[in-house]
Amino acid sequence: MKEQKDIPVLTGIRAICMYSIFFYHTNFFSPTSQSVPYLILNQFYCFLNFFFVLSGFIIYYKYSEIRSFNKTMLYNYFVKRIARVFPILLILITATFLIGYHHSYYSGKEAIKLYLLNITLLKGFSSQYNLTGIGPSWFMSVECLFYLLSPFIFLYAKNIRSLIKIVLFFYGIGILLTLFFSYFPFKGFFSDFLFTAYSTFFGRVFEFSCGIFLGMVAKGEIKSSAKYALGKKSLYAGLFIIIAAIASLYFIAAQKNIAHAVDSWAGILVNNILLAVGITLLFYHLIYYKSLLQKFLSSAIMVSLGSATYSFYLLHTTFVLSYIYKFISKNVFIAFVSMIIISLVFYKMVEQPLALLVKRKFLKNVQH
Fold first, then answer.
1. How many domains does the chain contain in total?
2. Which domain holds residue 220?
3. Is residue 159 situated within a structural domain?
4. 4, 25, 58, 118: which has the fewest Cβ within 10 Å?
5. pLDDT digits (tens, 9 = 90+) for 271-281
6. Distance of CA 223 to the CA centre of its chain
7. How far is C-alpha 273 from the chain's CA centre?
8. Residue 368: what pLDDT?
9. 335-344 residue pLDDT tens
10. Which residues pair with 189 in a beta bridge?
11. 6 domain residue, yes or no
12. Predicted model pTM
């Protein structure tokens, strides 16, 4: 594939995944009278997995040269990652805690402790704190640790065999950390193996590695026989695996009578491994082959919506959604449309300008 700065179709699909997560968070079905659709929608946390595979691909595809450990290149890479993630994260976390403190949700000392755990993203490693503040921002603990480790991962990522070794290495680190904190428990950090497997980079590394593998294929560094064997069938194979994985998550949750299948090891295997394979196949097809789906996801409107997904993700679980319910409508679909509009405005007026400002001020030896 001819290398491109951006791949629009992979921006467009972000919107579909993010909106699926919105409806997971706002599950409007009744758990009693509509138990089947309720439990199915309750497994839509799995659409977060698309972002882990996507991050592995995008970071490797655009920044694999950082494995050279060139100082300027590394510096600029981290500036770009910080500019992308932290300005609006700091703003929204600060606003969330100020509002929370104003409404007496937190005491003074507790507010400061939780605020620091949130802005440093350390909360993501603790089952006690990971849903505090902007709850789903624990996701950024996983992402940012990957960003931090990427230069080292890319240094050793040469082929499929090396990727497997990398996955096993970080699985091992996760096991050791969980064992350590089982003997020396501290505030829910690495509290148990299921938590480590689902909520930390050490359990999600396979998904990032799938993205890295796809990046290697796209850059011509790996000649994949599956690439030629599957061809256009990769779309159907990918969609089949994704649908089968979601169905499996539902059946696991139903059989074990749990809200989320990932609260069991069977669910973790389906969510962290099987689903990642299906996502990788789907992404491969979207990158290499034209189709109605690719055309739709590459459209200007989908790319615009996809670009604003980070703002949408952070905003829809903050005070903003509460205010929409209070002042606009309690109807989830009206709230959904309102969130899309607000996130687009926030992206254009706040997220994008702040990211550009940070890059203009701190990037070295590049054209702005």
1. 1
2. 28-291
3. yes
4. 4
5. 999 999 999 99
6. 28
7. 15
8. 38
9. 999 999 999 9
10. 126
11. no
12. 0.94
pLDDT: is 229 or 252 the higher one? 252
Asked if the model's pLDDT at residue 289 lies above 70, the reply is yes
Distance (Å, rounded) from C-alpha 170 to C-alpha 203?
8
**CB within 8 Å of 117: residues ≥ 6 apart:** 123, 126, 129, 132, 133
Give 126's strand partners. Answer: 189
Examine residue 139 and state whether it is found in any structural domain, yes or no. yes
Non-local (6+) Cβ contacts of 265 within 8 A are 194
Which residues 6+ apart lie within 8 Å of 230 measured at CB? 237, 281, 284
Q: How far apart are CA 322 and CA 239, in angstroms?
A: 34
Q: 74, 37, 257, 225: which is closest to 154 by C-alpha? A: 74
If DSSP states are collapsed to H, E and C, what string results for the chain?
CCCCCCCHHHHHHHHHHHHHHHHHHCCCCCCCCCHHHHHHHCCHHHHHHHHHHHHHHHHHHHHHHHHHCCHHHHHHHHHHHHHHHHHHHHHHHHHHHHHHHHCCCCCHHHHHHHHHHHHCCHHHHECCCCCCCCHHHHHHHHHHHHHHHHHHHHHHCCCHHHHHHHHHHHHHHHHHHHHHHHHCCCCCECCCHHHHHHHCHHHHHHHHHHHHHHHHHHCCCCCCHHHHHHCCHHHHHHHHHHHHHHHHHHHHHHHHCCCCHHHCHHHHHHHHHHHHHHHHHHHHHHHHCCCHHHHHHCCHHHHHHHHCHHHHHHHCCCHHHHHHHHHCCCCHHHHHHHHHHHHHHHHHHHHHHHHHHHHHHHCCCCCC
In a domain, 133, yes or no: yes
